[in-house]
Give the backbone structure.
Amino acid sequence: QVQLVESGGGLVQAGGSLRLSCAASDITFSDYDMGWYRQAPGREREFVASISWSGTAKYYSDSVKGRFTISRDNAKKTVYLQMNNLKPEDTAIYYCNRRPAVPGYWGQGTQVTVSS
């Protein structure tokens, strides 16, 4: 059973930064593309960013492009999301999962709250 554990969220003022981490228990972590997703209150979960298994290809939603950076360390089985210039509309629970997402792999997520 694959477990994904997100961490690094918190409360930050608009314009601030946070770095999220997602640690995987999957021994085949390096074989798969990974993604970050988020769910704001009252809204469906949405794609934020993804990274290929090798780390060479990265994709971002239009809403975070230029502000967020995804990266991974396959030796540590961890994927990161560096979030800069945060906005109140970035407030959400952030999750990681494979890309495409596997329904049974969702973790608890990490809460990000951006105050104006």
